[in-house]
Write a structure and sequence with these properties.
- With 327 residues, this protein is of the alpha+beta class.
- It has a domain of 204 residues: 2-Layer Sandwich (Ribosomal Protein S8, Chain: A, domain 1), CATH 3.30.1370.
- It has ten helices and twelve strands.
- It has a seven-stranded mixed sheet, sandwiched between helices. It has a three-stranded antiparallel sheet with strand order 9-8-10.
- The longest helix has 19 residues.
């Protein structure tokens, strides 16, 4: 059903308040969730239904445990991962402004960071190249050649400034995000063939069965290789846990790079825009009306939603969110 964006924003803020978050935390988490929802990304309000994301009572502000001129390692201090991810993104931007590159990572979070595109978009909007990786010991995805979950969904994202909207590549290394399974289950929908396995290792299209079994990696052995790299960079590299399903020590890594370390920013953006233009002019196959670059579809959906002031939300999902608000 359709709902006004302002009404949805109000529901999200009320839900987060019920979960115990402070006004500052609510603002950050709300912005991350709505960024995804407005783009049609399954990292949005679905995170608030069911068990939701209650604030951990032991959560305290994240803090830097080790840093250099270009880097900072942060203890998430049991604060929600979206708040911590925003914190380390701002750190990376700050360092990139000073020295041309900023690398920040964190350990000691357990919740989902939400759409990584939100953070690299923030970096790109500052005129920098943004890179982000996220891993978790929560095992949802089988390595290539296996049907047993060992990886998490291990997403990665890249944000690159252009003369107009940034290029935003935001993807999991699994066939779909875990919250995509929750959305499908909530909507009572089956999934396409090839997404994952049930708990016995049998292929299935039932999202609930995959949640108790394993997702496949995207692109077979290539996706499995990328999942491993993300697990290392956003896990072992930042002192987070890997392959321990009982752990709550997840990690993230963010990199901000100022194009001016190699040349002129405006020239770089113009060259990137030229590459995009050439790609979009490529000969189209039958049935294709437009060739889009990463992030373009989400940018267009967001603009259309704001122009109309409304957004379409799946009925069951919206009703579940309203239940959370009503308590």
């Amino acid at each position: 059903m359709k709902i006004k964006i302002t009404q949805l924003e109000s529901l999200v803020k009320k839900a987060l308040k019920k979960y115990g978050y402070t006004p500052k935390e609510i603002k950050i988490i709300k912005d991350v969730l709505l960024y995804a929802q407005l783009r049609g990304n399954n990292q949005g309000i679905v995170k608030l239904i069911g068990k939701g994301i209650p604030r951990r009572s032991e959560g305290k502000p994240p803090f830097i445990v080790k840093q250099t001129k270009v880097s900072a390692l942060v203890d998430g201090n049991c604060t929600h991962a979206m708040v911590v991810m925003d914190f380390i993104t701002n750190l990376a931007i700050k360092k990139a402004k000073k020295i041309g590159i900023g690398i920040s990572g964190n350990f000691n979070t357990s919740e989902s960071t939400g759409a990584l595109g939100y953070y690299v978009n923030k970096i790109a909007q500052n005129g920098f190249i943004g890179i982000a990786f996220s891993s978790s010991p929560f095992q949802t995805t089988a390595p290539y050649g296996s049907n047993e979950a060992k990886f998490c969904t291990n997403p990665m994202a890249y944000g690159i400034p252009t003369d107009t909207d940034p290029i935003l590549l935001d993807m999991t290394t699994s066939t779909m995000a875990y919250y995509g399974l929750i959305e499908a289950k909530t909507a009572e929908k089956k999934l396409p063939d090839g997404v994952g396995y049930d708990s016995q290792g049998n292929p299935t299209t039932n999202p609930a069965e995959i949640m108790s079994g394993a997702l496949k990696t995207m692109g077979g052995h290539k996706g499995s290789g990328l999942a491993l790299v993300v697990q290392i960079l956003a896990g072992a590299f930042v002192s987070a846990e890997s392959f321990n399903d009982d752990s709550v020590n997840a990690g993230n890594l963010v990199i901000a790079i100022d194009p001016k370390i190699f040349g002129d920013l405006d020239e770089f953006k113009h060259k990137v825009s030229g590459i995009v233009s050439k790609i979009k002019l490529a000969r189209k196959i039958e049935g294709v009306t437009e060739i889009q670059v990463p992030g373009e579809g989400g940018n267009n959906k967001t603009k259309k939603a704001y122009e109309s002031g409304e957004i379409e939300v799946e009925d069951n999902l919206l009703n579940e969110l309203k239940k959370v608000v009503k308590g």
